[in-house]
Amino acid sequence: MGLLDRLKAGLKRTKDLLFTDVRDLFKSGEPLTEERLEQFFARLIATDMGVAAANAIREELRKEHLGRLVDVDAIWATVKAQLKLLLKGGEGTSWNQTEPLSALNLGESKPAVILVAGVNGVGKTTSIAKLANLLKKNGKSVVLAAGDTFRAAAVEQLTLWSKRLDCEIVTKPAGSDPASVAHAGCSRALEIGADVVIVDTAGRLQTQANLMKELEKIHRVISARVPGAPQEVLLVLDATTGQNGVIQAKSFSQAVHCTGLVLAKLDGTAKGGVVVAIRQSMNLPVKFVGVGEQIDDLEVFDAEQFVEALFA
Ligand SMILES: Nc1nc2c(ncn2[C@@H]2O[C@H](COP(=O)(O)OP(=O)(O)O)[C@@H](O)[C@H]2O)c(=O)[nH]1
Ligand SMILES: [Mg+2]
After folding, report:
1. Which of 21, 128, 206, 223 has the smallest count of CB within 10 Å of its CB?
2. What is the CATH number of domain 3-87?
3. Å from CA of 123 to ligand 1 middle
4. What is the model's pLDDT at position 92?
5. Nearest 5°: CA angle at 88, between 253 and 21?
6. What class does CATH assign to 105-302?
7. Ligand 1 within 6 A of 122 CB?
8. Hey, where are the domains in the chain?
9. The CA-based dihedral angle spanning residues 245, 251, 253, 256, taken in that order and rounded to the nearest 10 degrees
10. Is the pLDDT of residue 10 over 80?
11. Distance from Cα 129 to the centre of ligand 2, integer Å
12. Given ligand 1 and candidates 11, 14, 126, 266, which is best to mutate, with the most ligand atoms within 8 Å of its CB?
């Protein structure tokens, strides 16, 4: 499957929500009524894009199409243009799709360190495996640091991925200080001249002050070991939680400086509009989206392509 096809497949549930019986909603040959606009607005809201964004789209539809005979293509053109507008703006929102690594800041000197954080179960470890795969495919050597020392199973999970990906992993027994694992991962990368270290962490709620402190400590230890690192602090959000992700993103950003988001499980939800909500409410770019459980199911996020896939 090509890039657009995978994204299209991943967005299936969001597409279903938006477009089911849409012919009945926007009947050609009839004038577009306020009632129909209201119904479409409700669908936009259901994708979790947020009231402000849904409002902006409805306003534009009102301005251009209300009372006129329905021209479905023209209506979609309006929605698409608005969505693209809503998704753009802010820095670093458009990457070169043919160079997926352009979405990552890998710094000037080796190794670059990517710290990955997020709530429990959102898809951190899986996203790390996908990222490592992407890096390897683009010629970068990777060391994984199994910083989720909270559960033995978490270390096993990452170890399994490291074997499949044939990349180095640094682990410590369950219960070890995650900062020391991050430290060891950086040391190993320096020793063997690896390009990138990806540090996994245990899940934590933004309300767990002690765990947020722990994350700060991991960050600090990495900086001390590798000057300028971590170059990326990626916060993983679970798209199925919709707007809740926005709250998580805001709280995490207060504890550690996040550089970007990975929105996992986009394939499992009709709440794909959350991408818009995130763009609207904070200046933190969505860098990657997860569209499945397999190693290749990670896409560099691109606003233009996202909207095209939604309507394709
Ligand atoms: N459908 C789907 N499932 C995903 C995706 N990313 C992760 N998962 C699944 O979500 C579950 C939790 O993932 P995991 O990486 O262990 O989460 P963590 O606790 O944050 O490390 C696993 O069953 C993954 O296979 C995705 O993009 N799509
Ligand atoms: Mg994990």
Report:
1. 21
2. 1.20.120.140
3. 4
4. 56
5. 105
6. alpha beta
7. yes
8. 3-87, 105-302
9. -130
10. yes
11. 10
12. 126
